[in-house]
Structures are given as C-alpha cells and as structure tokens.
Specification:
The complex is a heterodimer of chains A (505) and B (317).
Chain A: E1 6-17, E2 20-31, E3 35-39, H1 46-53, E4 61-66, E5 69-70, H2 76-81, E6 84-87, H3 99-104, E7 110-111, E8 114-115, H4 117-130, H5 146-159, E9 164-168, H6 176-191, E10 195-200, H7 203-209, E11 212-217, E12 220-226, H8 232-240, E13 258-268, E14 274-284, E15 288-292, H9 299-306, E16 314-319, E17 322-323, H10 329-334, E18 337-340, H11 344-348, H12 355-359, H13 377-390, H14 407-420, E19 425-429, H15 437-452, E20 456-461, H16 464-470, E21 473-478, E22 481-486, H17 493-500
Parallel strand pairs in A: 3-10, 3-11, 6-9, 9-10, 15-20, 15-21, 18-19, 19-20
Antiparallel strand pairs in A: 1-2, 1-4, 4-5, 7-8, 11-12, 13-14, 13-16, 16-17, 21-22
Helix pairs in contact in A: 8-17, 14-15
Chain B: H1 2-30, H2 38-58, H3 65-90, H4 95-117, E1 134-135, H5 145-149, E2 151-152, H6 154-172, H7 174-184, H8 186-191, H9 196-223, H10 234-244, H11 249-269, H12 280-298
Helix pairs in contact in B: 1-2, 1-6, 1-9, 1-10, 1-11, 2-3, 2-4, 2-9, 2-10, 3-4, 3-9, 6-7, 10-11, 10-12, 11-12
The chains are: A alpha/beta (505), B mainly alpha (317).
Amino acid sequence: MKRVEKVLELKNISKKFGEFYANKNINLEIGRGQIHALLGENGAGKSTLMSTVFGLHQPDGGEIYVYERQIKIENPNHAIKLGIGMVHQHFKLVEDFTVTENIILGMEPKIGHRINMKSATKEVKDLSEKYGLKVDPNSKVENLAVGVQQKVEILKALYRGANILIFDEPTAVLTPDEIGELLDIMKTLVAEGKSIVLITHKLNEIMSVADKCTVIRRGEYIKTVDIKDTDENELAQLMVGKTISKQLDKNPFNPADKILEINHLHLVSKSGRKILDDVSLTVHGGEVLGIAGVDGNGQSELVESIVNMIETNTGEIKIKGQSTKGKSIRDIFESGVSYVPADRHKHGLVLDKNISENLILIEYYKKQYNDGLNLKKMLIRDEGKQKMQAFDIRAESEATIVRGMSGGNQQKVILAREISRNPELLIIVQPTRGLDIGAINFIHNQIIRLRDQGVAILLVSFELEELLSLSDRINIIFDGKIIGQVDPNNTNDTELGLMMAGKGV
Amino acid sequence: MEVLANVINGSIVFAVALALGALGGMLSERAGVINLGVEGFMISGAFFGAIGAHYAETLNLGGLSPWIGLMTAFIFTGLFSFLYVMATLKFKADHVISGVVINLLSANATFFLVKLLFDGAADTPRISNMFRRINIPLLSDIPFLGIAFFRSYPTTYLALAIIVIGSYILFKTPIGLRVRGTGENPGSVDTAGINVYKIKFWSVMLSGSLSALGGATIVLTSNGNFSFNTIAGQGYIAIAAVILGRWKPYGVMWGALLFGFAQAIKDQIQIFPSFDAIPTEVFYLLPYVITLIALILTGSKSKAPKALGTHYDSSVK
C-alpha cells in the first residue's frame, strides 16, 4: 500500500479552560489529498481543537507536527505561513469591499505604491476557475448569497497558499443546493493536492466526501475510522456513546387535553434557507415532549415563535385551542405559558438587578405588585425571600445582584419565577446547561413535579440523557424538520444518534 | 459678477479650514473611531498655530513664521491626540463622550494657556506675518475665474494637495485598504494578519494633526491671532461635512465648500442695501441652518463605516 504523506499530525493534544478539559489527549493524523472529518456533538471540543491548530490559542499539552516537523503554532499568521487555512463558520469579510479586495487584504500585490488591482483581479479569477468556485472577483460581498460568501472565504485561504484547509461546520448556514456544491468543491480541492479537515456532525456529508473520520466525545479522542470500512450506524454510536438512560420516578403517563398545538409551521431566512420546515407537534397536559437535535437545527426559532418573539412565514400555533396570531408576548404569558429561555443571561435575567426584582420581571405591572405608581417594595422582597427558600436559591439575600451568582442559582431564579406563575404550558430550553449535578437534579425533579400536576411541558435539550430520563415522547428535529418521534423507553443511542445526524429511521 | 467671484473666493477660504478639519475627522472614522473631537483639535491647532507663528516672529523669522505656526499646530496637536488615542483605544472609553471631553479640555486649556503665556490677556498677540494670497501668474488675470479661483492662500493649495493625495492613499494603496477594512470589519483585518490596534493608533494620531491644520489656517490666514471663540463650532460643521461627504476625501471637499459658501454669502450679502431689513443674526444663522438641512436631506443615504464607534477585541470572535 502506498504510504500517504502526513501533512498534519496531533499527538496527545490537551486544552484546559479552568478545571475543565475541552480537549484531552487527542490524536489526529491528516494525510495529503484526504478529507478528514472530525465528528462530535456540540461542545465535544472539535472547534477548540482546530482553534489550537490555527494558533488561536496554545495547547496545555501535546505536540503538533506540520509536514512531520514538530512546531509550535504561535498565532493565526504563523498558521497561515505554515500553509494552514481556516474557513470560519462566521465569515470574516468586509461587506463593503469587492471579492478581490477581501481576498488580497493584508497581502496586496503592488505596482509602486498602489495596489495592482488588475493582477489581483486576474489572480482571484484564475484561482476561482482552477477550483471551480465560480466567483465574480468584482462583485461587492454584501450583494452575494451566503454560499458565495463562503467561497470567498475559501479563496482567501487559497490565495494565502493554504494546503491544509479547516472547514468549521461549513454547511450549517447553507441551503441544500449550496451544500451539494460545497461538497463538490471539496472533492476538487483534494484532487488538486490540498488536504481538508471537515468539522461536522452531519453523517451524510461525512459518508459522501470524507476518507477518514475521527470521533471526539466530551473532549476525548474516541476513534479514527476509515469511511470505506464503516457505516452511519457505527459513526452515530461512536458520536453519542453509551448513555445511561434512567427514567426518573414519575406517575404513569396519562396525557390530558391538548395544550399546545403547532400545525405546519414554516420559517425561511432572508437568504432563502429553510429554518423551520413544516413543523407540526402537540403537547398534552401532564406530558413532557422532548425535542432532540443538534444545536442550530431550528430549535430556538421554534420556541421563539411559540411565544411570538419571532414571526413565522406560515403555519398555525394554538395554545389551549386559541391561535396566538397577533398576540403580544405578554398576552401569551398571561394565557398560562411559562418560558425558560436557552440563554439565561440574554433572555432570562436582568443581570444587574437583584433576585427579588428578577422574580417579578414578567408580572411587575400587575396590581399585586404595584399601587399604580410605586412598586410594593416590601411585598416584593418578602416574596423574594419565600421563593429563595422554596427553590433553594443560594445567595446572601433577596437583594443580591444576580450577575455574581452561579449559573445554577441563576437558573433557579428563572425557574422560581416561571413555575410560581402556575403555568399550564412550560417551555423550557436547555435547562441544565453548564450546571453541577446538584442543580441538575433539583431542576429535573421540578420538571417531573409539574408534569405530575398536569402541566404540559415542551423540553428542548441537546443532552440525550436528560431527554431520555424526563420525556414521555421525543421528537427529533433536523434542518428545521421534525424527522421522527421515539418512545424514550423503547429506543437506543444508535437510533437517536442517527436521527439527530439527519438519518430518519 | 465681481460679487459672485468674491463669494466663491470667500467660500474657498472658509472651506479650506473646514475641509482640513473634516479630513482629520474622516480619517479617524474610516478606522472606526468616532471623532467628535474635531472641534477640540481645531482649537488646539489654532492655538499652537498662533503661538508658533508669534514666537517665530519674535525670533525674527519673518515670512517663515506662518509656516512654523502650521508645523507647530501639526506636531503639538498630534501629541494632544495621543490623549484621545489612550482614551478610545487603550481604555476603551465611549468615543462620543471622549470626543466631547477633548473639546471641553481643548477650549479651556488653551484659554488658560493664553492667559498664562501673555500676562492674563484673552487673545494671543496679533501676528504681522500671515499667509498672503498667491496670485497665480496669468491665471489670476482671467476675468471672474481669476478672482474666484487663482488668488488663494498657500494653505488652500496645501488642502487641495492633501485631498488628492489622501484620496489616492485611501482608495488605491494597501494601507488605505487596511484602514477602510478596519472601519468596516476589524475582525477580517485581524484574521488577515494585520495589527488592527496599530492602524487605529496612527489613524487617530494623524487625524488630530490634520484637523489642527484646519484650525491653524483660520488664525494664519484671516484672524491673525487666537482667542476663545476663534473656532466657535466650526469643528462641528466639519463633522457634518464628513457625513455629507460620505467619508470620502472629494465628498468631504464638496461638503466643506457648501458650508464655506454659506459663510461667505453671510459676509457678502450684507453689503447690499436691499437686505437691510433682515437682521444680521439671520445671516449668521445661515451656515448652521444649511448644515442642518443638508444633513436631513442626505442623512438616510449616508453610509458610515460599519464598525464605527465599536471597540475591537480580538479575543471575541
């Protein structure tokens, strides 16, 4: 067998943030002319690893070899000089510039003092033709579709002489047509001798273009497999791992009336990408409906459209049989909906206000909290004290500013506020992200308690374990589509992993 | 006809100060730093221009004095802009507030320094060697056009040169591309391996110096000395010229000419008896009213650099 030249090799790379290992002893070998996929769930440490390779930060342990020579990559500039190029997920383009101007920025060809725009334009044109990128060098970036902007990013890396190209979740922002085109471009690139690292969690992409695949889970190296020797089942299994599914103690499943009903919801982005694609679901009283899926598949848009934070294109949302069309967010909350948002800092709390003030954020305007002019300060403080006790919020007093509190206690403040409003429908997104085990258990128990009381609960989470232990039913969302439903008592990791990666079973 | 020629000539005289002030403001804003401090830098320029020329005169440098005044303004205001650089870049202070502080500081510090240097006087001593109009041979004898365009101060030709060269640098050279990129999206400039901080640093430093030339021009061509109200809001009009000129050197020039025209017409129109019925205050209002109308008409179309007023932090992606 022909020996493949190693262009990039990582040995035992570790990276710590505080006490937390984002990467632990990771090994990776990239061969010339290969597409090497890096597969893992959100937060598995893929991007951290590639940021290390691109010199954005230094590893805490391990060695990096470029062309079989050990090297310390100081910064992105150094990485570029070594022939490593990165196609960022969020484009780094100057919208007001032309394609050519964006590409040559920092490496401008000159005649005398001025930029040689003619030769630059020609060079960009030649490059784009050579790799089949079809980009007009003279168009302004702000007028280009997202897919074309990504090609400009690729050209930027190629113009700088990149031989190793890192693509960070490149298909996340693309339409299906654009994805097909990008995968073809990747094949052209490797045919021309470039090497590609493809960060992704989409199995079909890996199966269709990659030569090898390295799986990372929770920051740790799991396995590297040859694509020709594997299948999607194995990859899904490797990505998700063995989850310990233990159903928490709860009453037998006894669904009551429909509380939330969503019919044929559609949402299309400005660039024409389908964000929500014909989503229909129902949640009954006394049940937890789990939404499983990798981040960015339409979950946040789905919940934000239920509470009318965003407007959808077509479709119908009914809460207790009433359409939410034209209702304000407050109307919806008053009709018995509680909402625990994914981003507790941005949407859940006012960080520089204290606990008792955050507890009345939704209902401050009601008679019980004000006399028409002033807030009833004493009452608000007393209620704050009670809720701190009831929800085990640990802080000095109800007058503690929430910014300085731990994530778990902040989340409990939100939960206390939302649960105390006696909802009939609770929408709860990523309720335990970043929390310690004690807070997680507390929050899980609260969710089960509400379910047993007959509340309808829509739980969106990226944690399979959480979904499996809390949900009565699980819907899987992928690319804005509900692609299947499973019974948590009667499913397995492989099935869920495959569906989350876009393979409906 | 002669009145019109005089109005045009007067417009150019006023416009030069505004244009230089505005070019400074434009440069800093192209690099993403809002510059409300133009007024302060023009005041500083007028002050250093006046005392530079004055001390040159006391050293018997004669005709060189105004040139020395101009250089003093350029260099010392450059040092003064270092304060603004520190506030906005190093300490990441709000640009608008820092700019206003620069204006207040400049106005009051120069007032104080004048008192300190000249025994409690409110004005600097009058300079006798000011810039003189250059009559360009032959061209200045052309009827109408000669008066309008070819009898100007050397600073006018200097300003024109700065506009032409500035536009070339900004739109044709690598450094111009990088400065513009910094104002639009510093993240992309950074990932292209360019030091964003350095670009902002020098843009703001030079910005102060350019605006200072505008302030010095007023002293060294028309006023002859510096006092508390030499600049009196012209820095703000210069900022309006930046917006009107859409952050482009030639655009800024036309903006400055429009406002210069408003100033010149104020002076010329009062000569006519038929306008006696209108109080002079109305004419004094004219430049500001025109500024306001121009901004209202162009405001929505005007395109500021996208990252204007933001602080760039390379660790935030």
